[in-house]
Amino acid sequence: MSKSLLSLAITAAVLSGCSLIPDYQQPQAPVAAQYPQGPAYSPAEAANQAAAEQGWRQFFHDPALQQLIQTALVNNRDLRVAALNIDAYAAQYQIQRADLFPAISANGSGSRQRTPARMSQTGEAAISSQYSATLGISAYELDLFGRVRSLSEQALQTYFSSEEARRSTQISLVASVANAYLTWQADKELLKLTQDTLAAYEESYRLTSRSNEVGVASALDLSQSRTSVENARVQLARYTRQVAQDENSLTLLLGTAIPANLPSPQLLSADLLSELPAGLPSELLQRRPDILAAEHNLKAANASIGAARAAFFPSISLTANAGTLSPDMGGLFKGGSGTWSFAPQINIPIFNAGSLRASLDYSKIQKDINVAQYEKSIQTAFQEVSDGLAARQTYNQQLQAQRDFVNANQDYYRLAERRYRIGVDSNLTFLDAQRSLFSAQQALITDRLAQLTSEVNLYKALGGGWNEQGSQKVEVSKEAPPLKLF
User: Fold this and answer.
1) In sequence order, what are the beta bridge partners of 30?
2) How far is CA 423 from the centre of its chain?
3) Distance in angstroms (rounded) separating the CA atoms of residues 406 and 439
4) How many CB atoms within 10 Å of residue 223?
5) At CB < 8 A and 24+ separation, what contacts does 146-149 make?
6) What does the angle CA 149 – CA 153 – CA 154 come to, to the nearest 5 degrees?
7) Using CA atoms, how far apart are residues 431 and 443, in angstroms rounded to an integer?
8) Measured between alpha carbons, how far is 302 from 205 in angstroms, rounded to an integer?
9) Contacting residues for 388 by C-beta, under 8 A, at least 6 apart
10) How many Cα atoms within 13 Å fall on the side-chain side of residue 209?
């Protein structure tokens, strides 16, 4: 009995040697071989270490930010879902791959039946019994043209895609936490600047009010000074709200409350980030998980064409069992009680109103769609990196100019205040100097935030954020999940 089942499995394995999956050809990258050059870009430099291999602890210098990223990697719900999706697709692959093997099951049954006298041929009531024990294969498809293996390959590539999607989710999470933290710190600095400016405005208003009482300052001067105070109060309420909302956004990303033992944050003006090497566009094909995920989806679509092609050919399924059959329990395993059955079935498609052709056309169209999506992911990555490189060079120039602008406004403010207090200039000039300085200081903080955010986004665009330490290599297993036989 067991020898016949083993022979059947070996025969099926020998026959299952054909695959109709088209040969996979990686599409050409629809981007230039080099990143853009011009006034907005700094000269290209050789990279000693790819950005994707630069750990986020190495890239982000602020200990507070490092702790927040670590907290998010443990508690963020989107990352948990991405990890669970890997397990889900691994299970789907396991289900699909199991069809490559015969499903062997053991079955035991027994029955006793009483037949009334008027229904019995002997005219007497009769009791009959039947017991059986069988081992069999149920509806096992011989994969002669690779249909089942094509579906298994499709499930495997989808599983690989889910692994890359998990990497992409983590990289996006690291960048999102960093940007949320930097925004939070920028708004806190803007709030502190507004508080200090409001205190200066209120002091100026108090002095102007005293001058008005003694007839030195006019009512117009007093009214103009008050407008500055009220405008600062508006800004104070605005930044107070933004700081609270920043904390809420950060809490959502972390998946838990902001740690109470968070180290003291560094100022935005500090050296918060490491320099990033850009490398070549071709490196993105192996560094960006979204590009790798798109390619695995393309391979899955390619495998589905093989399954659609195999549907045009005959399919053979086998059902067989062997065991013992006896009218009494004691004779179930005695000689002469053996029984077996063998029921092969062949299905030959003859007429299906074009459904098989439509299925094949659909698979080919899906592959073309995935080719376009793969190419679009490459173009998007190229554009994001190019934007980051342009931002790097221009923000350096912009920030230096903005710092010089703040210094010039500080000189203007000191001179205007001195000249106003000694009665040389009007209050209008002094108020203009106050507002110009406040606006310039706000713009400096905002520009610094934009620069840091662009560097974080460039780190993300280059595939950085997957490793914690820079010594680790970006490697993702491309082995199928282990097959569980039981």
Assistant:
1) none
2) 64
3) 9
4) 12
5) 146/16, 146/18, 146/19, 146/20, 146/21, 146/306, 146/307, 146/310, 147/306, 147/307, 147/310, 147/311, 147/315, 148/16, 148/96, 148/99, 148/100, 149/16, 149/19, 149/100, 149/306
6) 115
7) 18
8) 74
9) 454, 455, 457, 458, 461, 462
10) 8
Is the pTM here over 0.90, yes or no?
no
Six-digit token string for 440: 């310039």
Residue in 274, 346, 360, 307 with CA at minimum distance from that of residue 153: 307
Tokens 């002095």, residue located = 207
CB-based burial label for 479 (10 Å; 0-12, 13-18, 19+): exposed
Coil/strand/helix, residue 126: strand
Closest CA to 427 of 206, 204, 232: 204
- Rounded distance, CA 244 to CA 66, Å? 21
**pLDDT at position 484, please?**
66
From start to end of 12-148, where are the E strands? 104-115, 126-142
Cα distance between residue 35 and residue 25, in whole Å: 25
Report residue 467 as tokens.
């490793």
Q: Position 180: which residue type?
A: A
Structure tokens at 280: 């070549």
CA gap 235, 208 in Å, rounded: 22
Residue in this structure with the two tokens 């009769």, named with its chain if needed: 126
Q: Is the pLDDT of residue 330 over 80?
A: no
3-state secondary structure at position 267: coil
Amino acid at 291: I
Q: How far apart are CA 377 and CA 176, in angstroms?
A: 20
Give the span between the Cα atoms of 16 and 149, in whole angstroms.
9
What CA–CA distance (Å, rounded) separates 68 from 180? 10
**Single-letter amino acid, residue 129:** S
pLDDT(328) > 50 = yes
pLDDT in tens, 251-302: 999 999 999 999 999 999 999 998 887 777 878 888 899 999 999 999 999 9
Q: What pLDDT does 107 receive?
A: 87
Q: Are 324 and 338 in contact (CB under 8 A)?
A: yes
φ and ψ of 106, to 5 deg:
-105, 145
Contact present, 247 and 220 (Cβ < 8 Å):
no
> What band does 395 get if pLDDT is binned at 50, 70 and 90?
very high
| Contact status, residue 71 vs residue 254, Cβ threshold 8 Å | yes
- What is the rounded end-to-end Cα distance, in angstroms, of the chain? 22
* Pick from 274, 200, 277: nearest CA to 208: 200
Residue 478 and residue 160 in contact, taking contact as beta carbons nearer than 8 Å: yes
C-beta neighbour count of 198 within 10 angstroms: 19
What is the spatial distance between Cα 461 and Cα 452, in angstroms, rounded to a whole number? 14
The three-class DSSP label of residue 104 is strand
What per-residue confidence (pLDDT) applies to 278? Answer: 73
CA distance 23 to 450: 46
